[in-house]
Known about the structure:
Blueprint: E1 3-7, H1 11-22, E2 26-30, H2 38-43, E3 46-47, H3 51-57, E4 60-63, H4 68-76, E5 90-93, H5 99-111, E6 115-118, E7 121-122, H6 125-130, E8 133-139, H7 141-154, E9 155-162, H8 166-192, H9 199-207, H10 214-229, H11 239-255, H12 261-278, H13 286-294
Parallel strand pairs: 1-2, 1-4, 2-3, 4-5, 5-6, 8-9
Antiparallel strand pairs: 6-8, 7-8
Helix pairs in contact: 8-11, 8-12, 8-13, 9-10, 11-12, 12-13
Amino acid sequence: MMKIGLIGTGRLGGGIVERLINVGHDVFIWNRSPEKTLHLVELGATLMASPAQVVEAAEIILSVLTDAQAIEAAYSGPNGVLSASLRGKVCIEMSTVRPETQIALAAKVISAGGEFVECPVGGSVMPAKEGALLGLVGGEASSVEQVLPLLRQMCRRVEHVGAVGSGSSLKLAINLPLLVYWESLSEAIALAEPIGIDPERLLDILADTSGAPNVMKARAPKIAAALKSGKPGATFFNIDSIRKDLQTMIEEGKSLGYSLPVAQAALSSFDRSSAAGYGASDGSELVTSWLAIAKK
Length: 296
């Protein structure tokens, strides 16, 4: 059993907290909106008043934050992570951001006496709760070795892919095909609409093809239900979060000298859905908003 801190208890972070509690760790948490942590406190997490207090209480500090601005606030803001003593402690940063953000943060943490590992993950809420995420690790081998047992409790597979920044590069790469898939699925369902097949049957057929990602097998019933009812189901990774990730991918591509036209086209579609009021809906339900907007 270890004392683990976690900063940022959104959907993914909250799922990780549940997993850590279930495997027996003492978990200390902080979130910008403390009222959103009540269910985690009921499960046994200890709510702290600041990121600095999380550092003081924990041996290893995880952070799962929205973007680079949120990372800057949590680490460098008043009573942030860097205002506490980091000597003898390891920070594991798990947010989906550009590699340069992780590299800059690593330098600050190491200068403050701590060790730094990045581990953005593949997977959403349920894999987080089950310890079945895909961990994409960047960092010094000695630092990674220290936290590997913990990472293996959170992840079904842990890949140390290089220095800090490497994990973030790979995370953007693995997310891109999935996110643009929801746009291609929307277009595919539009083409099949004249046939008049029941949505459950249509989604079942599409899920049983070589073009379907693994996630379709799990999400097909959910998408079919949303198509039939017009009402969104449970949210795992919402449209506005996807927009942020796609924009991050496009910015990183530009920094490498590449344009990403497919990602840009998908972003435009997600932007339209968000503007139409679907921003909080799960990304897999882009198809619902896409068809509704197209018919207006």
